[in-house]
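User: Before I run my own analysis I want an independent prediction to cross-check against. Here's the chain; please return only the structure tokens and, at the end, one sentence I can use as a sanity check.
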Amino acid sequence: MKIAMPLAASLVLVTAMAAASLLGWSMVGSEADLAIHFGLDGTPSRYAPAPVALSVIPVAAAVATLIFAFTPRFDPKASASPRLYRSLWLFVLLVLTAGHALVIGYALTKAG
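Assistant: Structure tokens:
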């Protein structure tokens, strides 16, 4: 199965998330508490220290990328439907990116 396109997209998204985290961290500082969970109306409901809040999702995205990249080598069922597999891979990364955007957006509004 060809994984070049989703792998490249994943690397771009993970790199962008890491860069946004570093920027957000530099703006709010290590002592700030940032929202990590939001209700359906968009209001924050749980908080964590900035280093945790800004690093959890990029790390999860990197781990997801590794899992998606190596699973076809060990599980032949993953190769049975390459189009579905690549779509699921990109969907997971986009959902993680959207969640990280919420955390970063909250961090930047708190800094400003």
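Sanity check: The CA atoms of residues 11 and 65 lie 8 Å apart.
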